[in-house]
Amino acid sequence: MITPLGKKAPDERERNRPAAALRYGAAWVAGAARTADARRAVHAFLALAARTAHAPVTSRAEQDAQLVVSELVGNALRHAPGPCGLLLELSEDRARLGITVWDTSPALPLVHERDGTRVGGHGLFLVRSCSRALNTVPRPDGKLVTAEVALQSL
Description:
Elements: E1 2-4, H1 12-15, E2 22-28, H2 35-52, H3 59-79, E3 84-90, E4 96-103, E5 110-112, H4 123-129, E6 133-139, E7 142-150
Antiparallel strand pairs: 1-5, 2-3, 3-4, 4-7, 6-7
Helix pairs in contact: 2-3, 3-4
């Protein structure tokens, strides 16, 4: 079974959301992005969040965040022409990491259900499994895909 990833239109809450406790962004020209760079960015960001913002980052949370950013950036590289970008945001309460990847493809991602006979196509299922939220916001120049990872066990 294939289900479309939830489409979320920007609304007043998105435009007026509270400021993040800590934020990091990166953008890459076409062909320059690598998933390893995104994973390193997550590692450095979470280390900074733990050190300066006193965010309670568990080992499991960092592993989940590494998986999420690898899959989202990997999908952008695989399915979208042109540049892409990454935004990492520590929630104001320091309990969640927002991972947003933007790309130039207008196609909304599809979450394929688990199928042991299929090679590939499991990434967004895994992302959805280890995220508290997973949304897509269409834009005139492509889309934003955002996942939210809890930084400690709930």
